[in-house]
Amino acid sequence: MQLRVLGPVEVAADGRRVTVGSDHQRLILAVLLAARDRVVSADRLIDAVWGADPPPSARKSLHTHVSRLRRALAVAAPDHVEVVVTEPDGYRVDLERHDLDAQHFEAALARARRSLDADPEQAVHHLDEALSLWRGPAFGELAEHALVRAEAVRLDGLRSAAVAERIDAQLAMGDHRAVIGDLEAAVAAEPLAERHHGQLMLALYRSGRQAEALEVYRRLQQLLSEEVGVDPSPEVRELHERILRQDPELAVPRRPTTTGGGPEVAPSRPDDDAPTPLVDRQPGSLLGRDDDVVALVALVADTSLVTLTGAGGVGKSRLAEEVAAEARHRFEDGVVVCGLAAVRDPSSVTAALIEALGLQHKGDRSPEETVLAALGSRHLLLVLDNCEHLLDGVAPLVDRICGRCPHVVILTTSREYLHLSGERVWEVTPLPMPRRDASAAEVAASPAGALLCLRARAVEPSFELTEANAPTIAELCRRLDGIPLAIELAAARIRALAPGELAERIDHRFQVLTGGSHQEAGRHRTLQAVVDWSYELLTDAEARLFDRLSVFAGAFPLIAVERVCAGDPLVDAQVAGVLAELVDKSLVVVDRQEGSVRYRLLDTLRAYGAQRLAASGADEVIREAHATYHVELAEELGPRARGPDEQAALVRIDAAIDDLRVASTWLADAGVVDRSLRLPAALHDHLTFRPRDEVFAWAEHAVELPGAAEHQAYPGAMATAARGM
Questions:
Q1: How far apart are CA 452 and CA 432, in angstroms?
Q2: Element spanning 4, H or E
Q3: What is the DSSP letter of 522?
Q4: CA 450 – CA 241 distance, rounded (Å)
Q5: How many CA atoms are closer than 13 Å to the CA of 293, on its beta-carbon side?
Q6: pTM attached to this predicted model
Q7: What is the C-alpha separation between 589 and 586, in angstroms, rounded?
Q8: Measured distance CA(179)–CA(400) in Å, rounded
Q9: Does residue 372 sit in helix, strand or coil?
Q10: pLDDT, tens digit, for every residue of 297-350?
């Protein structure tokens, strides 16, 4: 069984997450895991759960909680050895026969430190392995508990050290340009961290940005003097002096060949079939993608066709560029990039590829044969970027290349994969986001937050991430779904709008987030254009279902889609197939957890669909169907919140709470007395275990509606309101 503390406390068995019952049980497990395999006394666990004033039945209750915890783990993995072991003096976790992610992290970190001086590339490999285990701050929301805090702080400190040591290794390898964005974010998060300042100074200097390196030192010197009254450390002062005198020993050459300090280019060839150079990569654009790059470089070395899929603006093209740059040394003939965004006719794909390869098409053979002949003996990586609108032309050509050119590897980017045999599909997901009300350090440590701050400083140098604006920045990242393009467009607006002003207007994101980089294609200049590009590729049935899905606020099961969204022209039997097509086209996200499958829309796509639904005139009909379904769901699950189905009912109600909220609001606004009363009345038993102020408020509002007192559901809603009071 896998025990995880490098993020929120989790348990997994055979790769599936295990639901740990109550909050008390999760806390007990966290305390035991913080102690590693040491015994924790019953008295300390009682103190952890109930504090200094435990109830008289605390010891018996503790035993009950531990028993339920064991039972939950045993049900999920009956063949596994018991996790929580009873000892004469208390309890402990058996870490000899179960895996703790923190132990794997520390072992990988130790391996990295042993190889750092002799083999920095191997050290980076080990550090990537170590850092890939992290899902957030150690122990998540339980980190501040007295019996967990010390271990959480220790692990978070090791993580910070690992990040710094990875940068040291990259600098030793000559990858100074690649680390500048991460270091700028780290300096913003920890303004007094001298190690990061020194690393940033060195990276900037090696990148030919000596003046900026010296400015980093000046700001650090001023900050240390004003804040704590000291000078920079001797090590940082020495580095400053060496930069001033341009010490030759500071200049470590990069491993890959470069020309003129610009982007990496393919090696020159004597014939006119030379691959085109890689496009320039924007600094800071790949925050949070290091693990993806490492995994994809390995994947393109092991298969002939890889497709990067994902929503518009999620960063597929930039990730492909980085993978190509990192993998190019594996291919004797380098990398060829063929951008297809501007191609409109599927029959023109071959012509675009001929141009990218630098070939001359001769009339004695077809364009396709010209491509196949040129690629037949080549060992290269071929990147086909933005294929989704040309699948009818791209898929057959790629299939022929894979069959005829055994040494060519193809990497495609598309919002829909090619559906070819042997194709490996990699979903590019949004950037990890900071939690709500995150601190400045948490925002800067999250890839989405770091990207927003980096881009904001680029357009407005006076912008600073502070404890005051950190929650607003976190909220912006979350409202924008962690999509890099949306974040960059939002950051560009910080030159004119304060973060709070921007957050207040993000509901109108399609009007506010315009005016992207002039280096981008037109479809990436505005958020509206990004989604328009995807929407225009849909069939009528797909577009109709996508619009209707916008009424869901949270994740939803297939049965809900069939109940809410079916209707002219979509019949029930069509819905599952059309929904699958929307998943394939990266417009619907699939959440798989503990054997269940649910679907959801990113906020940006939901807002777009809501606009379309309102324009279609079907808004009221679909919203009424949504409200009816969720009232009936509450009436089905509410009575089951007591009894043998208790846990399953609670989980399903919790999963639907966002949509129950939307249903209640719509019903109340529409003055629908019947369902406004039935909804909170149905949740009365559920509130015994999950008291929610907002559900009590639904009841209080419902019983005040005109005509409510005469309705048969009035007593139930009044009972719920009374429970709240």
A1: 12
A2: strand 2-4
A3: G
A4: 30
A5: 23
A6: 0.55
A7: 7
A8: 39
A9: helix
A10: 999 988 999 999 998 888 898 899 999 988 888 898 889 999 888 788 888 899
